[in-house]
Amino acid sequence: MRLKSEIWVKAYLRRCQVNGATGVVVRHGDDDAGAIFIKIIRSDQTAAVFSPAPAGLDDADIDRRWVSRFKQGFVAEADAEALLKREAEFDSDIWVIEIEDREGRHFLGDELMN
Q1: Lowest mean pLDDT among 5-14, 50-59, 99-108
Q2: pTM
Q3: Which among 52, 60, 71, 90 could disulfide-bond with 65, CB atoms 3.0 to 4.6 Å apart, if both were Cys?
Q4: What gap in Å lies between CA 49 and CA 28, rounded to an integer?
Q5: Where do the domains of the chain lie?
Q6: 98 by DSSP, 3-state: which?
Q7: Which candidate, 32, 69, 25, 17, places its Cα nearest to that of 48?
Q8: Cβ–Cβ contacts within 10 Å for residue 47, how many?
Q9: Tens digits of per-residue pLDDT, 43-88?
Q10: Is 97 within 8 Å of 13 (Cβ atoms)?
C-alpha cells in the first residue's frame, strides 16, 4: 500500500531541506491520492520535471517511481511551467512541488526511472 500523497510530500520536502535545498508546495493536490509532479530549478534558471511512472511499470502501483518529462533533462523554466500548466488542466488533483537546488539534485534516490 502506498503512502498518502500529503505524507509523502511532507517527507520529501524534509529530505530536500536536510540536504540544503529549498522546497515549496506550489499546487496542493488531493491529500490521499493526488499525482505528484516535482520541478527542480537550478541556479541557471533551467528546470527539470519528474512525474509519476505509468501504473503497472516496475511496481509503480505499490512504490512511487518517477520519470523525467524531458529527454534532455533540464529545459528553460518556461517550458517546464507550460508542461505543469497542461497537466493541471488535465487533472485538477495534482500536486506540484518546486525544489530550488543550485546543483539540480532531485533527491528521489533509487525511485527514479529513466
Answers
A1: 50-59
A2: 0.88
A3: 60
A4: 17
A5: 5-113
A6: strand
A7: 69
A8: 25
A9: 999 999 999 987 765 554 457 888 999 999 999 999 999 999 999 9
A10: yes
* Homologous superfamily (CATH) for 5-113: Protein of unknown function (DUF1491) (3.40.1530.20)
Give yes or no for a contact between 69 and 112, defined as CB atoms under 8 angstroms apart.
Answer: no
Show the cell assigned to 25.
508546495
Per-residue pLDDT at 111:
60
In sequence order, what DSSP letters do the residues of 11-65 get, joined into one string?
HHHHHHHHTT-EEEEEE---TTT--EEEEEE-TTSEEEEEEEPPTTSTTTTTS--
In whole angstroms, what is the distance from residue 10 CA to residue 80 CA? 22
Give the integer Cα–Cα distance in Å for 43 and 45: 5
Q: How is residue 111 written as a grid cell? A: 525511485
Q: Quick check: 21 and 101 in contact, CB under 8 A?
A: yes
Grid cell digits, residue 49? 520535471
